[in-house]
Design a protein that fits this description.
two-stranded antiparallel sheet; globular; 14 helices
């Protein structure tokens, strides 16, 4: 039997998988480093939250807002416990990634519910809400405010060039500074745009619309026009990026990592970074919701959690 039977026989294209796995690790590291900026916890966060207008909610809507935020806290508790127990990083990789993603998703659902009563939303609807209501209205601080709408090639090229702003770094290297992290983050944003565009093209090629027109590729102006109309309505941002990372939870990249493709120290840091990102986003979303509701209702929610929830999470980061 070969030395690494699983990788050599079942996982093909290891160079591509290595590139993809390291890209995921590097983007999470970059986002975590950008979360270190103290401005995020002082001026930016305070000023951005103050832009949020309070609303009156009916009882059902209020219940859904706080219920979803509770589940965000619960998922974060899972992640914090995994980190606290200092478990072998390879054993908890997918669990940590899942808890981080779900904590962020529940927080964003809670934010969306504070804008509309619609309780059932797709990931694409959440991504568009994130762009339209949070980024475009300057609610979010960096790194969560990086993104743009209209994923056509020309607009993407212009936006990425503007965001990069002559930064020479990309997502191929493990970031160590804020400047490296910015370059890595924008490169991964561009890659996520390509990821969304590729899946849009795949779906269109398999659609009845293309079948009826006998369209087999995107070489014709008609096919390009249909694709670009769809891409013009789509957005790429932090939520699209973390969703892309989460989509790898049962992928070849995870098998590659589990067989030692990423060294244990780097993987341990990856899990710590996931925790920091989830915690930081929870603070931001909590501030948003407390402004949307009222400080009194938010305080009641937090005090009730502390007193009655049989969960170990300390909620000092959600008091202000």
């Amino acid at each position: 039997m070969s030395e690494k039977w699983m990788l050599e026989n079942l996982i093909k294209g290891q160079n591509k998988i290595n590139f993809s796995a390291n890209g995921m690790i590097n983007w999470v590291r970059a986002t975590s480093i950008l979360c270190n900026d103290q401005k995020l916890f002082t001026t930016d966060l305070k000023n951005n939250s103050n832009c949020v207008l309070s609303c009156d909610f009916n009882d059902e809507q209020k219940k859904l807002i706080f219920k979803n935020f509770f589940f965000s806290m619960y998922e974060y508790t899972h992640l914090a416990r995994l980190v606290h127990e200092n478990i072998h990083p390879y054993d908890i990789l997918t669990a940590a990634l899942t808890s981080c993603y779900k904590s962020i998703i529940f927080a964003i659902k809670s934010m969306k519910l504070s804008n509309t009563e619609c309780r059932y939303v797709s990931i694409e609807q959440l991504i568009n809400f994130y762009q339209t209501e949070l980024i475009n209205k300057d609610i979010l601080p960096i790194p969560f405010s990086i993104g743009f709408k209209d994923l056509t090639k020309k607009n993407t090229k212009d936006k990425i060039k503007s965001l990069k702003n002559n930064n020479s770094y990309n997502n191929n290297d493990y970031p160590k500074t804020k400047e490296m992290s910015w370059g890595a983050s924008i490169t991964f944003l561009n890659g996520t745009r390509d990821y969304i565009a590729e899946r849009t093209e795949e779906r269109l090629l398999n659609s009845s619309q293309f079948y009826e027109k006998n369209i087999l590729n995107f070489r014709t102006k008609d096919a390009q026009s249909i694709r670009d109309k769809e891409l013009a309505l789509k957005s790429v941002n932090f939520l699209a990026q973390i969703h892309r990372v989460y989509s790898k939870v049962n992928s070849d990249e995870i098998v590659y990592i589990a067989y030692g493709g990423i060294n244990p120290e780097k993987l341990k840091q990856f899990i710590l970074d996931l925790k920091k990102i989830a915690r930081t986003f929870q603070i931001i979303s909590g501030r948003y919701i407390s402004h949307k509701c009222s400080s009194q209702e938010w305080d009641c929610f937090i005090q009730d959690f502390e007193k009655n929830a049989a969960i170990s999470l300390k909620v000092q980061h959600l008091k202000w």
